[in-house]
Automatic annotation (TrEMBL):
Residues in RNA polymerase sigma-70 region domain copies: 28-92
BP-aspect Gene Ontology terms: DNA-templated transcription initiation
PROSITE patterns assigned: SIGMA70_ECF (PS01063)
Protein name in UniProt: RNA polymerase sigma factor
PANTHER family tied to this protein: RNA POLYMERASE ECF-TYPE SIGMA FACTO, RNA POLYMERASE SIGMA-70 FACTOR ECF SUBFAMILY
Alphabetized UniProt keyword annotations: DNA-binding, Sigma factor, Transcription, Transcription regulation
Pfam family, one: Sigma70_r4_2
NCBIfam families: Sig70_bacteroi1, sigma70-ECF
Organism, as annotated: Niastella populi
Family indicated by similarity: Belongs to the sigma-70 factor family. ECF subfamily.
Every RNA polymerase sigma factor 70 region 4 type domain range: 125-177
Keyword Nucleus: no
Domain of life where this protein originates: Bacteria
Length: 207
């Protein structure tokens, strides 16, 4: 931290921030940047992407400064915004193949092969548990698309339903499965597991 406990009174700093004091904003930035940087880096493994996330986080703090309650834990509030920004990044990755490949590549370079193998096993276990919670028809549609690689048209013909119905089942299935994965909270592996899921979604939906 760049400030000491003797000179840093957070409640006072936040009250000044609420009044639009840019020096107070800079104090908060300097006080939390290093810790938040390491927190986000644990998830995304990319210094450049980490800084982009932090830029969004602190911009958000400045934009909502008048709604921050000085009597509550600012640190907890800040980390909540930070975590939300990380998962917002995940949504961006879901439609940006180049960014997804960049994050996945940097992650695989930063961990040992044995750890990757364990992570993939964990991913499959969590995914199968999530699939088992789907309704019977939705589970059948998902397994035909994912495990047998069939197109929406092929699944529609096999089950005697419309292609749009198949697509609707897949969209709702992925929403439910994503919610199951997000239960794993602040574990850095959770972000990577969701990233794997996002990569798989993009493959499944191109049919």
């Amino acid at each position: 931290m760049s400030t000491t406990s003797g000179t840093y009174n957070e409640q006072s700093v936040i009250q000044r921030l609420q009044r639009g004091d840019s020096d107070a904003f800079l104090q908060l930035y300097n006080h939390y940047h290093a810790a938040l940087y390491h927190y986000v880096l644990r998830f995304v493994k990319s210094p450049a992407i980490t800084e982009d996330v932090l830029q969004d986080v602190f911009l958000k703090i400045w934009e909502i400064r008048d709604r921050i309650d000085p009597s509550l834990s600012f640190k907890a509030y800040l980390y909540k915004i930070c975590r939300n920004s990380v998962f917002k990044l995940l949504k961006k990755i879901s439609v940006d193949e180049a960014l997804r490949l960049q994050v996945m590549q940097q992650f695989t370079q930063s961990v040992a092969d044995a750890d990757l193998k364990i992570l993939w096993q964990q991913y499959e276990e969590i995914l199968q548990a999530a699939i088992n919670k789907l309704s019977p028809q939705r589970q059948k549609v998902f397994r035909l698309c994912r495990e047998e690689g069939k197109s929406y048209e092929q699944v529609a013909n096999e089950l005697g339903i419309s292609r749009n119905t198949v697509k609707e089942h897949m969209v709702l299935a992925m929403k439910q499965i994503r919610g199951h994965f997000e239960q794993y909270g602040d574990d850095p592996a959770a972000f990577v597991l969701l990233l794997m899921l996002t990569s798989e979604i993009s493959t499944i939906f191109i049919r």
